[in-house]
Please model this.
Amino acid sequence: MDRQIVYEDDQIRTIFQEGSSDFLFITFGDLAMLAQPNESRFYADVPASKRGFSCLGFMAKSPNWFPSQNVQRAVDQLENILTRFPDRVVYGGSMGGYAGIKFSALLRAANVIAFCPQWSIDPAECAGHRNGYERFYVPTMAGMGIQDTDMHGRMHVLYDPAHQVDAFHYRKIAALSPNVVPVSIHMSDHHVTTILAGTSILADVIAACRAGDTSRLYQVTNPARRKGFHRKQILMQRAAAPHPLLTHRLLRNPDLTRNVGSAVADELNFSLAKAFVHRRRPDLADEALARLRGSAAVCPYRLQLAAAAVGECARALILATGEMLRTHHGTVLAYSALDGRLCHVDPADIEAPASGLHPLILVGSGSAPVLGVQLGEGLFAAEIGPREHVTLRYPDAASRSDFVAQFSDVGEALTFQRHGKYFCADPGGGVRYNRIKETAHERFFPFTRTGAKRPNPQ
Model:
């Protein structure tokens, strides 16, 4: 089928494909499918082409959430195409789902099909809630939240109600219009688009939504949801904490482990080790860690620290000589070997047997110290990897460290930045890496075990 680029600027590209359908299928791309140079692909183009749909595909050139002024200019130039199709179905997932709802009035949509869409990624609009996409936010997106005046037609929102971020966005969208129809895709997390991919599913989902038949929509989506491997992953991830013994027995099956994927299985085994330590079952915890020893993807130092916690081995405490970091909450920054993440905890928790918690210390001196952990006689620098998991490296390999340490203008506090965003101790005990300005939660105070403060070298 012939395609032509009918609009393009520095932010978006729009492609038209003539088909035989009696409606116009308008799609918005997601983060996994950005516009590439010299390409005329668009979101859901393969199944739409197989079904002969007339299509108008909007593609973002970056994670820009389709700037309103650019989409407006595109629609102004595409009126001759739009007027040919009074019946318009708008379709998109995640970033594209946001755009599908955001521009449904502009496009005068009859139906919108949005997979796990966002309401906004502006931290100011999502105050008090992590929107999940702060790393993509830029100041030009301020005030980008969907408004009731943006919405038109019947809007089917397909999402997993147990996914906290997507459920938050759904609630914000649903509060704006009575025409929002929820479709629960349980045990899918943020993978609804992947689970419902395919030519036959696309056609059946569109037909059910155009007919306003929610029962039929569930008849289409439920079998696909149950067959998807994501469901197995999520079931096991959610079962690990409340049902560790059941999950432990399941992970003894190598076929099931391969089915859920090695990365998921690795994190499940760490979760099980933590759960069994809390239940005083070091034998089972050690068995869970044994499954990790052959994984090339697991940080060996994390595994070594976790094994030490499981065995309640004596740790070389650095409290007497190293400088720890006190937070605004009176807690201490620490590395949790069993979680593989940084956190902040009560100082007494660090000294608890088999806690797996190791206080962060300052490695080096001067105005640019590195955050580190001591393991036996070795000292390791902490780096943040994908999904905020920590990798430990020898200090001489820490040149790749993405922490930038600076002394604050407030007292003798230190701040740490990563990719231009501040390192933050949030009130819930977690550590975040996405704050855009320095507040009390972004300040850390070096101290020794006796409480003496570190002299400011400036």
Q: What stands out?
A: Residues 238-298 form one domain. The longest strand covers residues 54-60.
